[in-house]
Model the fold of this input.
Amino acid sequence: MSATPSNITAILLAGSRPGTDPLAVAAGVAVKPLVPVGGEPMINHPARALLAHPAIGRVIVLTQAPELFAGDPATAWLAEHPRVRFETSGGGIASSLMALLDRADLPFPLLMTTADHVLLDGAMLDQMVREASGADIAVAMVERRILLARYPDSRRTWLKFRDGWWSGANIFWFGSAKARPVIALWQEVEQDRKKGWKILSAFGPLALLGAVLRISTLRGGIARVGRRFGLSARLVAMDKAEACIDADKPDDVVLIERILA
Done:
């Protein structure tokens, strides 16, 4: 199914991980999405980008504490916006997403991103919607050369494959209900990270061998995992380096504010 104007539901993850977040503590706010970046809470940036995009019909903010956003004068507009609704999340992303799918009867397609994706913009969303449409599941990534060509000093976590070194761009696409078994598997990984190799082997011996020997391409690996589940899975290799720069550390915030300026 391809996405038509305004039929995509965007899920904006605005929860907090267990324990205290150093950025939130340093800024003196209750949760990380309220940390000021460029003069306002970071969540406002991706929220505005999503609401401005013609393909996005509605935005669901998934967080453990909706009242914090309604009670903050700088984010109260979100709680009052007719196309935004808040839903309460649990501890893990996948388990919260599964619970949301079960209780809210959400229409597909869904596009999911994070409150710390401050640099999210219309061009990134255009590319994601264009290249993910028709897939049951898609994940956005940035190849290392794309990032380093523009920001040579930026540090990321890279996954090495035969078709390059990749870093996550925190934009996910769930095109149909066929994505549910993959979300359920993600939930298992979240619950017990120590069983990671068992989870990987559930994708089949080729995927396991490919990961261990690093002989698999990321594109091929994602497509193969999809076939294992009887669905269409796709990598979206983002054109913009900024797609993988999120506000995770003080250095990131400095870089983001420089880019925004």
